[in-house]
Amino acid sequence: MDEQKLHQIVHEADNVVPRPTPKEFYEKQPRKSLQNLDDYKRMYKESIEQPEKFFGEMAHRFLSWDRDFDHVKWGSLKEGVISWFLGGKLNACYNCVDRFALSTPDKTAVIFEADDEGECRKLSYQQLLFEVCKLAGVLRSWGVKKGDRVAIYLPMTPEAVIAMLACARLGAVHSCIFAGFSTGAIRERIFDADAKVVLTCDEGKRGGRITHTKELLNKALENCPDVEKVLVYKRTGNPEIEMVEGRDYFWQDEVREYPGYIPPVSMDAEDPLFILYTSGSTGTPKGVVHCTGGYLLGAAMTTRYVFDVQPEDILFTAGDVGWITGHTYSVYGPLALGAATIIFEGTPAYPNMGRFWKIIEKNKATHFYVAPTALRMLKKSGEAEISKYDLSTLRTLGSVGEPIAPQIWEWYDEKIGHHCCHVADTYWQTESGSHLIAPLAGAVPTKPGAATLPFFGVDAVIIDPTSGKIQEGNDVEGVLAVRSSWPSMARTVYHCHQRFLNAYLRPYPGYYFTGDGAGRDHDGYYWIKGRVDDVVNVSGHRLSTSEIESVLLANKKVSEDAVVGISDDLTGQAVIAAVQLKDPHIADDEDSLLALRKELRMTVRKSIGPFAAPKSIIIVHDLPKTRSGKIMRRIIRKVCSGEANGIGDTSTMINPEVVDHLIKAVEQQFGVKN
Ligand code: PRX
């Protein structure tokens, strides 16, 4: 963590006056979820002091239970046992589909905006139920039952939503794999989750291009012998797609045989709903496990209270179901409230920079939720496209995935929201399941750049990382942790509870450790600084430096490497790799250096995905190391950022002479002067 910067952030916050939700917000939708800040404070207090009462009532208000729960909250972070709503039984698919198919069957549930502008499809709740049941029928006939893992490797199409809900209907645990992942990452996730069935499509469409979904999956499955069945949705219908006999079947052919209704399987509240892999600072990606009752309640409550989503609303979350944002705010949150969700297949830049705005105008979207990286790009592209569209239906603008700079926040508020929207910077994580810190619509005044105040049940604390002590009061900074469990918190890492304990519960015993640095200003508002571990956030994509390092190391020419993240104007952070070669002469001339860099970048693209490819690869003679042989990434990060003056203490370094070499290499190859 850059402590100086953090000081500055908290200090600057002194001058920021909190802004109330604009009155136009409620002129557009007069029903109020919350009346004012006192409402928030009263409910927050109750959620912390009497969680059983508070969340017991919320669970009854937001969800339909097949059997009522016996205990609201059970276990403790100290023991590493977290349970909510024990004894309760429910089905997530029933809660997100059947309830509304019964009460408002013709109401739109899913709006599909395809990559090609002309292609749009709507599914009512009744139609969604039909499609989900048909797919669940196929899965059931293949022997998929409660607790089985099903991998979903699908782009942002309604089929991804249908696939998740069909699994949930049967009690099978879905594990979505981001469609931008390549072979190595797909294989690793399918293998780790022990998935026997994969749901996918032939090809995807994105930004005017075809993506080779099935081809990549085929390669990944070469090393996943346990996968027995693959269901392939014909998205483009390309007849050349390679199908493996006896394993691969076409979705549209198979669903024909199955009825439009099959009953949902009643699940225990603590039964897993899904696994989602995420990068940590060490080891392979962690399969974060979320459970049915608590997760669904967190999704529904935050969607209602942070965004103020009502059943008549249309929410456009420009995320991806391959990440947690897509799970919670494209699928489970809006559907659990009976609202409509826009599923967008494409990119903000295709066919032009007006695509998001066109989708909002066309569908009269009321809520828009996106990562700051997209906002930075759109701001840069100018206002011509924005002014062409009527965005007046919008009520809430959300931001997620990385810190939002105050000037981007202001731009979002002014140019997209016309100062009439609730602007919510939402801080949370794959592990938290739903928002941890975010302003509640109509109740919590906002400050540009601040995530503001914790959500109900989130007992946020700031810990001094050196002493491990809780920082009481305001105007403090340190690392962010949570004192007690909240309903949508992850329960474990799939088949490795020790990793869960080590990553989240052991660093500060009795607390959940977020991995982020943060400050709390004089109003008690939280300002998130970013990761304090080796996780890099590129365009809102969470990447582990060690994962990229091992992919580079697999190249025979590389003897050692270190990957770091440095600030980047457009992508938030950028991946930089410092690589030491077995034969240093390989890179002697410009052409072979160029070819080598291309090859290394390609290795990462092919193995993890294009978004993980290093922006720059610096060839070095040696890497800075401690006496015990640990690579000192901090030094590489500082030098690559042009801050060699601030590298601090080098007394533990075994090879201090490397710093000068590194400074030279960075200047020559990366153009950054120190
Ligand atoms: O570092 C924080 C950053 O994203 C991390 C979580 O990444 P992931 O699990 O992929 O989930 C992203 C979508 C929730 C966090 O540890 N992060 C997320 N939201 C914010 C943020 N950093 C600052 N401000 C945010 N609003």
From TrEMBL:
A single GO molecular function term of this UniProt record: AMP binding
Pfam families from the UniProt entry: ACAS_N, AMP-binding, AMP-binding_C
EC number(s) on file: 6.2.1.1
Keywords: ATP-binding, Ligase, Nucleotide-binding
Family of this protein: Belongs to the ATP-dependent AMP-binding enzyme family.
Annotated protein name in UniProt: Acetyl-coenzyme A synthetase
The organism of origin for this protein: Dekkera bruxellensis (Brettanomyces custersii)
The keyword Aminoacyl-tRNA synthetase belongs to this UniProt entry's keyword annotation: no
InterPro entries: Ac_CoA_lig, ACAS_N, AMP-bd_C, AMP-bd_C_sf, AMP-binding_CS, AMP-dep_synth/lig_dom, ANL_N_sf
Residue ranges annotated for the AMP-dependent synthetase/ligase domain, each copy included: 98-485
Enzyme class label: ligase
Catalytic activity: acetate + ATP + CoA = acetyl-CoA + AMP + diphosphate
GO process annotations (BP): acetyl-CoA biosynthetic process from acetate
Protein's UniProt keywords contain Ligase: yes
Residue ranges occupied by any AMP-binding enzyme C-terminal domain in the UniProt entry: 547-630
Domain Acetyl-coenzyme A synthetase N-terminal: 40-96
Taxonomic lineage from the root: Eukaryota, Fungi, Dikarya, Ascomycota, Saccharomycotina
GO cellular component: cytosol
